[in-house]
Amino acid sequence: MHTYQDILTSKKSGSGFDPDLIRETFPILKATVHGKKLVYLDNAATTQKPESVIKALDDYYRHLNSNIHRGVHALSEKATEAYEGVRDKARQFINAASNKEIIFLRGTTEGINLVAGSFGRSNVGQGDEVLITGLEHHSNIVPWQMLCNHTGSVLKVAPIDDKGEVILSEFERLIGPKTRIVAIAHVSNALGTVNPVKRMVAIAHAHGIPVLLDGAQAVPHFRIDVRDLDCDFYAFSAHKMYGPTGIGILYGKQSILEAMPPYQGGGDMIRSVTFEKTIFNDLPHKFEAGTPNIADTIGFGAAFDFLNGLDWNAVSHYEHELLTYASEVIGAIPGVRIVGTASDKAGVVSFVMDDVHPHDIGTILDREGIAVRTGHHCAQPVMQRFGIPATVRASFALYNTKEEIDELVRGIYAVKKVFH
Ligand code: 7TS
After folding, report:
1. 185 CB less than 6 Å from ligand 1?
2. Predicted confidence band at 70 (pLDDT cuts at 50, 70, 90)?
3. Which of 158, 336, 402, 412 has the fewest CB atoms inside 10 Å of its own CB, making it the most exposed?
4. How far apart are CA 141 and CA 133, in angstroms?
C-alpha cells in the first residue's frame, strides 16, 4: 500500500500524475462485478471515495458525534469546530470572499431550488423572464419552471448547435429588459460541453442580470474561482468530487444572500422567536435550518484535503489525455457516433450505436464489469435536440486509465458481435 505522500510526490507518468497510485487509495476500485474487474466509468453520476473520506466519516461517528451550534459540552464544541472548519476549506477551495457566502445543503439540486425559491420568488414576477440554456440538467430546468408557473414568469432557453455548444449570439439576444436571472451549467453532464461561463457571466452582467452557475460537473475537473468567474451563485455537490452523498454547497455573493429571505424555517436559522415575530440568524446560518448533515460535511472536508493535495496541472493534463484518447478510440468504432463534439469538453463521452438501444449496450457492458450510464441522463431536452431517446455515457475521473478505455472498446465490439 502506498502512502498518500507517495502519491503526491509521484512523477511516474508523462503527465506527472500516476493513476495507479491514486487508484490504491480508492478501495472500491479493487472490486469485481459479475466475476470481472470493475471498470467504473459512471463518474458523472457519482465518483468513488478515497480511503481518507471513508475514514473521516468513520472517525466522526466513533469519536465526535454530537449536535452542533448548541451544546456547551466538549463533543458538541469539537463537532461544531470541525463542521465550521469545512466551511473555511470550502471558501478557500472556490476562493469565496467570506464564510458567510458558503451555504451547506444537500447538493446542487437543493442549491438551485434555494435560489429559485428565495431569490426567484422575491425578484421574478408576472411577465418577467428566466434564461437558461439548452444544455441543462433537469435540476437546472424544473426549479425555474416551477418558479415561472408560480409567478406567471416565462422560461427562455438559449439554444445549442449540432456540436452541443450554446449559441452565444442567441444567448445574448435572449437577455432583455424582462430577464431577472440567468442559470447556466458550467459543464454539461450529458455531453461534457464546457460552457464559456466567464464570458457568459460578463454578457449577463453587462445587462445587469445576476447569474447562477450549476457547477456539479465542473468541480471534479477544474479548480473553481468564483471571484474570477464573478458569478452570483455557484452550486455543487460533494459526491461528484470524491466526497460523500447528501452534502453540497451553494455559494452566493454576500450582498445578494443578505437581501434574500430564508428558504426554510426551523432551528439554527433564527436569532429569536416569539409567536408574534422571528428574527432570522446571520449568514450563512439563515439558510441552514435544522440539524445539518454534520458527518457528511466532515467527510466533504476530507475530500477538499484530497483534492488540495493534487498537482492540478498534472491532473488536468492527464484527464485531457484520457478524454482525447477515449474520443478517438470510441469514435473510430464503425457504427458508433459520438454525441456532443464541442471544442471544449470535460469528462464525458456520450455515444449512440446503429440499430442497438443504449440500454442493451449498457446491459452487455455491465456483464463485462463495465459501469456506464445509459438513458437521457436527466437532460431530456438535450436528447430531444439531437433527435435521440438516449445515449451511452462513459464519464471519467482522475483514477481511470487508458487500459479501462480499451476495456470499454472491447466491450463495445462484444455488443456489435451480439447484435450484428
Ligand atoms: N447539475 C448537473 C450538471 C448534474 O450533472 C447533476 C447530477 C445535477 C445538477 C444534480 O446534482 P445532485 O447532486 O443534486 O443530484 N447529474 C447526474 C448525472 O449526470 N447522472 O446522475 C446524476
Report:
1. yes
2. confident
3. 402
4. 9
